[in-house]
Amino acid sequence: MIDYIKGMLKENGFGCIIVECNHIGYKINVPHPLSGKWEEGEEIILYTRLMLKEDGLYLYGFAGVEERNLFNMILSVSGFGPRIALSLLSEFTVSQFYVAVLEENVTTLSKIPGVGRKSSQRLILELKEKLPSTFSIEKGTESESSDLSAKKETLEALSILGFSLGEATNAVEQALNQRGDEANSENLLKDALKFLS
Predict the structure, then answer these.
(1) I need a surface site. Which of 23, 49, 82, 183 has the fewest CB within 10 A?
(2) Mind listing the pLDDT tens digit for each residue in 57-89?
(3) CB atoms closer than 10 angstroms to residue 133
(4) Is 113 a domain residue?
């Protein structure tokens, strides 16, 4: 498994770039926003996923671990392949995508070519279940201990999604200030993701 590639950008294409590393040029499929993000000749790092298909090996690259994690999660849903997963990551940031899933926003997800209402509903159903296992909906005691538990679970969920402790802590604190006594794991995660997007 190739975890990441660090090298010089040799060629910039739409949805595909070539990175030279140790005199080898790697053709890497990327979300469209990454095409043109860097100048040719610039040293870059991409977190990758290597896939074997009938007609060859394909390498997919992402600017951060959280994007790659989301790409892998989307691929785990029946009917979603690399092309649609890249389209979703081209349209949404990780935070925006998770907010859409948590809010069950079928209309937003259905705007992506190749993703209809039924497939959006399937995506939401399966990915809500695959959110980090540390995330669970609080049943709603309003004690200080439940507030701390909700905060801890949300921090752990954001950490698993690839956000740094500093980013996650700042976003959760903002969400707590906004929610007050209404804070629970579900709405804290939604609000924190909105702050991070």
Answers:
(1) 23
(2) 999 999 998 899 999 999 999 889 999 999 999
(3) 10
(4) yes
